[in-house]
Design brief:
By secondary structure, the protein is of the alpha/beta class. The protein folds into two domains: about 5-130, Cytidine Deaminase, domain 2, CATH 3.40.140.10; about 145-360, Dihydrofolate Reductase, subunit A (3-Layer(aba) Sandwich). Helix content is about 25%, strand content about 25%. It has a nine-stranded mixed β-sheet with strand order 10-9-8-7-11-6-12-14-13. The N and C termini lie far apart (about 50 Å).
Length: about 375
């Protein structure tokens, strides 16, 4: 595999492990052979370039560095990566994506150039931008990047009238969902989903085993604090956050459970903007919204969704009372409907996955 693809793969696999810092992949080569590689460590740890340089244990004066994001040039929790690159003797650097952080943007490249290091364009195709769509939004707006995920039948149902929903998606689609979960900092669900389905809300491997190295934080939207302390999600690896409007907690949740007190909306539910502010303060960059329909509807109504993964199964349920994936207020006219752009459609055996980004639209509420 080419060095640039290795670097992209390293960064992609490490998503969900470094926020609020971006996940970066770095590969050092000499005469086309890989000498060393590294990824960003969790917050406070070394950046990818430094890990790769430290792992090399060799003279790097005739080596090239491939790094998916522009190296930092300022002091934060760690020192500047540009300084380590310059000191290493590396003379050529391939950079996949400019850092959107104004403390770095363009400045890291310029510092390397000023020290005689050649900066070359990333080999095509360049997929680095996808790695940092969440980080870019977080830097520019201070808000997390929200991805809505749902699975539905051909007639737009997420379950039967009796609530049966296992399984709409096939095995391949569910494996994709677990990979998306693994790359997310957190998963949001509503209290109705927790009480009706009692989900695990973990990222699991192909054998159904929860990954031990990291798990997304589970966030339950529970305005009235109705989550049962015996729920399955409290028995899984990783932490759980209960977001509520209740000021005093009389329930005894497991010790590592965090309670977020949010402002109520006019309907008594959690004000999504109050929630978002607190999630951003925690440092969540990429958040996956899994439902239920009311939670998804509220996020769409408030123009908070950035990306959509819609899994469509070739089956028909029917039933007037069978639920659809998106609740909330919705739109009153087709001209106001929520539209996607940059759409990517794939088939997973019989399932169809439609992925795309929300077009800009006016806030409704």
């Amino acid at each position: 595999m080419e060095a640039n693809k290795i670097a992209e793969s390293l960064a992609s696999e490490n998503l969900g492990n470094t926020s609020p810092n971006p996940s970066v992949g770095a590969v050092i080569t000499k005469n086309g052979a890989v000498v060393s590689q590294g990824v960003t460590q969790p917050v406070g740890g070394s950046h990818a370039e430094v890990v790769a340089i430290d792992n090399a244990m060799a003279d790097l004066s005739e080596c090239e560095l491939y790094v998916t994001l522009e190296p930092c040039c300022h002091y934060g929790r760690t020192g500047p990566c540009t300084k380590r690159i310059i000191e290493s003797g590396i003379r050529t650097v391939y950079i996949g994506c400019e850092d959107p952080n104004p403390l770095v943007s363009g400045k890291g490249v310029q510092e390397l150039k000023n020290n005689g290091i050649a900066i070359l364009p990333w080999p095509s195709p360049n997929n680095c931008g996808l790695l940092y769509e969440g980080f870019k939004k977080f830097i520019n707006t201070g808000e997390p990047f929200f991805t809505a995920k749902f699975a539905m039948t051909l007639d737009g149902k997420i379950c039967t009238e009796t609530g049966d929903s296992k399984w709409i998606s096939n095995d391949i689609s569910r494996r994709i969902v677990h990979q998306i979960r693994r790359q997310s900092d957190a998963i949001i669900v509503g209290i109705n989903t927790v009480n009706s389905d009692d989900p695990l809300l973990t990222a699991r491997d192909d054998n159904g085993i929860a990954w031990s190295d990291r798990q997304p934080t589970r966030i339950v939207l529970d305005s009235k604090l109705r989550t049962l302390p015996t729920a399955n999600l409290f028995k899984q690896p990783g932490r759980t956050i209960i977001a509520t409007t209740v000021q005093s907690n009389t329930r005894c949740f497991p010790g590592d459970t965090q309670i977020l007190i949010c402002s109520p909306a006019s309907d008594g539910r959690i004000d999504p903007h109050s929630l978002i502010n607190q999630l951003a303060e925690i440092g969540f960059v990429n958040i996956l919204i899994e439902g239920g329909s009311q939670v998804l509807g509220t996020m769409f109504d408030n123009n908070l969704v950035d990306k959509v993964y819609a899994f469509i199964a070739p089956m028909i349920i029917g039933g007037t009372n069978a639920r659809s994936p998106i609740g909330g207020l919705g739109t009153q006219s087709m001209v106001d409907s929520i539209k996607l752009e940059n759409i990517h459609i794939t088939t997973n055996e019989n399932d169809v996955l439609v992925a795309g980004y929300i077009k800009n639209r006016k806030k409704k509420v």
